[in-house]
Write a structure and sequence with these properties.
Length: about 425
């Protein structure tokens, strides 16, 4: 993931004045980046990041406070879904033991402002900053609910990766313990989220009233350090495979006990589950992101070859490039997977394998995994979208001796936007 880490390093370095980096012994890993601050870059790091995830439109929001859908308060109160994300950063307090306040403020702002940029890059809206915490909304009236969740997961995953690969270097060089970042994400359907104005006179705030907004903060507090905790609606609406999440556990009297519920009220008969999202495994599944070579294979994507996907809705339409896991596709769309830029590889044979996940696929297919026999030996494989969930096309590359020399997979989200949400709130009367 060197390309992604390079983007993170440049994002962080761009927020620290060049003279501060060059005068400090604590910035050796960013020194070369600092020297290039004054060189005009063809593409800013955040634009490179958006390009990796297929973001072609302009950023949805560059403001803080009132969600752009509700700047006209005359429509309030109003019911509209939203995916809420709450991020809390622990550990930055000790910066005050190492640096004067002016630099503490500089470094803390560099961390928070990068989090803001990452969330905005995935069309999130920053609602509020609370000390070392960020509260953001994902989703708006023109966005599909599944896409709001996907954007939140992608943004949160990159924030955790940024902390692990870039911020950790800064804190290690300063002999400080690493930051602990916890993130909680949940979504409520239209009937479960009420947008309205709170306050009096000129002291007001437009915000969401929803148990699922509240649960995002509670999920954050339940998250293990440097992890992402997601609510039941998040993984159920995407029909996400348990390959990408785990049940939280703790030790009690020497036994391992599962913590499945973020809400468990027996008096009100209210139960709502949570899972720890495995953001590292999720990012490692991206064909477009560099990864380490494994299992003795000497070629890997996207350094030695590329696996791409194109989609179209109608037969007579041209194919359009689809960036992996960037948004959800409708059912019945045509897919075209291609192997490209493989000139340095001694390819003898190619095999394509479908990997389906989710309840719909389980109920409809005799087998969730199968090779596309008609596409063996071809550099192109065509398929179609059929079931809600996160599914993969795997590509196996063999040399002329029949030995496997490379393997990669390309993930696509499919969602028809009709899955039920878990409803916890009391329905409006009348």
């Amino acid at each position: 993931m060197s390309q992604l880490n390079d983007i993170f390093d440049r994002l962080f370095a761009s927020k620290i004045p060049t003279e501060v980096i060059l005068e400090s012994q604590q910035f050796s890993v960013f020194e070369n980046l600092a020297k290039s601050h004054d060189i005009e870059q063809v593409r800013p790091p955040i634009e490179e990041l958006r390009s990796l995830f297929g973001k072609e439109n302009s950023i949805f929001s560059r403001s803080i406070g009132t969600h752009p859908d509700f700047l006209d308060t005359s429509i309030l109160p109003h019911h509209q879904y939203v995916c809420s994300l709450f991020l809390d950063i622990s550990g930055s307090t000790k910066l005050g033991l190492k640096f004067p306040l002016s630099k503490v403020r500089l470094y803390k702002n560099a961390i928070l402002s990068t989090a803001i940029e990452l969330f905005q890059a995935f069309d999130g809206h920053i609602h509020r900053l609370q000390g070392d915490a960020v509260f953001a909304y994902f989703g708006h009236k023109e966005m599909k609910k599944s896409d709001a969740i996907i954007n939140a997961l992608n943004a949160a995953s990159l924030m955790q990766s940024y902390n692990k690969h870039t911020l950790s270097k800064f804190f290690e060089e300063n002999k400080l313990p690493p930051l602990r970042i916890r993130i909680g994400i949940d979504i409520g359907d239209d009937s479960e989220v009420l947008w309205s104005e709170y306050g009096i006179g000129n002291v007001t705030e437009v915000t969401s009233t929803s148990i699922h907004t509240d649960l995002a903060a509670k999920l954050q507090s339940q998250s293990p350090r440097n992890r992402i905790m997601i609510g039941e609606n998040v993984y159920n609406y995407l029909d996400l495979s348990d390959k990408f999440f785990d049940v939280k556990t703790h030790t009690e009297n020497g036994d391992t006990v599962e913590d499945k519920y973020v809400l468990k009220d027996t008096n009100l008969y209210a139960y709502y589950q949570m899972r720890v999202f495995n953001w590292e495994k999720y990012l490692d599944s991206f064909s477009s992101l560099p990864k380490s070579k494994s299992e003795g294979r000497i070629y890997s994507s996207p350094t030695d070859f590329e696996l791409i996907c194109s989609v179209k809705k109608e037969e007579d339409e041209p194919f359009k490039k689809y960036c992996q896991n960037s948004y959800s596709l409708e059912k019945g769309m045509h897919l075209r997977f291609e192997l490209l830029n493989y000139a340095s590889m001694p390819i003898g044979n190619i095999k394509w394998k479908v990997i389906n996940y989710g309840t719909e696929a389980e109920q409809s297919e005799s087998g969730l995994e199968y090779f596309m026999e008609q596409s063996e030996g071809e550099y192109v494989c065509e398929q179609s979208t059929a079931y809600t969930g996160l599914h993969f096309m795997e590509c196996y590359i063999y040399n002329h001796g029949g030995n496997l020399i490379a393997k990669d997979k390309f993930g696509i989200f499919i969602n028809d936007e009709i899955r039920d949400f878990r409803r916890l709130g009391v329905p409006e009367s009348g």
